Amino acid sequence: MDLVQIAQRADDLDRAAAFYTLLVGRPPVATYDPPGLVFFDLDGVRLMVERGAPSATIYLRVDDVDATVARLRDAGAVIESEPHLIFTHANDTLGPVGTDEWQAFVRDSEGNLVGLVEHRPR
């Protein structure tokens, strides 16, 4: 079984599309308005930003959590939690063995919580 799609709530579709374009570093692959849908391709998993969908917390892997938080802060995003060490992976059960998992949390333009995850080599 593979993850195909995740949905995130948007009140303002254009504002949400701009936020996720900044976050993921590429534009949407499709927009359908009406009914109020914007799709991003996250390496084969669709992120659907939908007007009226329930809010969800999503976690996105980033190459550099500090740089990503700085870029989002500069763009006016609300930073809920600065980058911090969550876990050291002694085996590969939940992440690459020999890495430290760092996370930070931001609010998207619609108030949804987004976790940013980096696996740093020890």
Draw up the topology in text:
Blueprint: E1 5-10, H1 13-24, E2 30-32, E3 37-42, E4 45-51, E5 58-61, H2 65-74, E6 78-89, E7 99-107, E8 113-121
Parallel strand pairs: 1-4, 5-8
Antiparallel strand pairs: 2-3, 3-4, 6-7, 7-8
N-to-C SSE string, H for helix and E for strand = EHEEEEHEEE
What would you report as the Rg, rounded to the nearest angstrom? Answer: 15 Å
User: Any idea how many domains?
Assistant: 1
Indicate the CATH topology.
2,3-Dihydroxybiphenyl 1,2-Dioxygenase, domain 1
Overall pLDDT confidence: 96
Instruction: Indicate the multimeric state.
Output: single chain
Q: What is the CATH class designation?
A: Alpha Beta
Low-confidence spans:
none
Explained architecture:
With 122 residues, this protein is of the alpha/beta class. The chain is 18% helix and 46% strand. The strands form 2 sheets. A 4-stranded mixed beta sheet has the order 1-4-3-2, with helices on one face. A hairpin with a 2-residue loop joins strand 3 (37-42) and strand 4. The longest helix has 12 residues, at 13-24. It is globular and about 50 Å long. The model has no long low-confidence stretch (mean pLDDT 96).
Summarize the structure.
By secondary structure, the protein is α/β, with parallel strands linked by helices. It is 18% helix and 46% strand.
Labels describing this entry:
122 residues; alpha/beta; 2,3-Dihydroxybiphenyl 1,2-Dioxygenase, domain 1; 4-stranded mixed sheet; 2 helices; globular
